[in-house]
Give the backbone structure.
Amino acid sequence: MKPITIYWRDVVPNPAKVVVILEELGLPYVSKYVEVSELKCEPYVSINPNGRLPAIDDPNTGIKLWESCAIVRYLIQTYDSEYKLTYSTFPEKFYLEQWAFFQASGQGPYFGQAVWFNVFHPEKLPTAQERYGHELKRVVGVLDGCLKGKNWLVGDKCTYADLAFVMWNACIPFALGATAGGGPVDFKSEDYPNFSRWQNAMLARPSLQKVMSIWKHKDIKSEGTR
Ligand SMILES: N[C@@H](CCC(=O)N[C@@H](CS)C(=O)NCC(=O)O)C(=O)O
């Protein structure tokens, strides 16, 4: 198999979501790092007209694809022939999609807006900080409730649906402004014991250990490819 090219830059949630799946499935890949200044212009917009990361180019099938959830779905359907991270059975395969859609529409955008208003927005807007901080906590509460008495969201194994959440979960302190001097919404992981157990179990997996160590050492920008 030829290596799949993944376009990304830093271990931020959406690109890292795809790298975790490549690692979990043991697929060969090469990284192309795209700087922020290169995202919204050629040649990158010919790969992803939305000018965001990630995108992939798979020479084995000829597909170029963007949107992290679509890429994960493609990798699973094309390469997870042993159902390591998925199910082919009813109703599990639909439950997986339910959680994957919830992640894409209910977790990512709300956590992302929490980051924006707590960290990057040039003026402090307490109503926006509270809105997205409370939504973040509400989403974590939904997950915590559904994980009561269970190790994984669907069935008895870790799937692509679980793994879709892990990187944004890992950003919670950052999203709530902890590294930017603190936001108005407080979060204690011990208030969400099922969620925390699940998150820690995912972080202990070799795929996540590798991705998080790249994040910790910030060494990915030093190489053009790897
Ligand atoms: N829905 C998209 C979101 C992609 C996205 O927002 N990526 C961020 C990195 S996590 C990005 O490229 N940001 C750069 C920008 O907004 O210009 C996906 O899941 O792929």
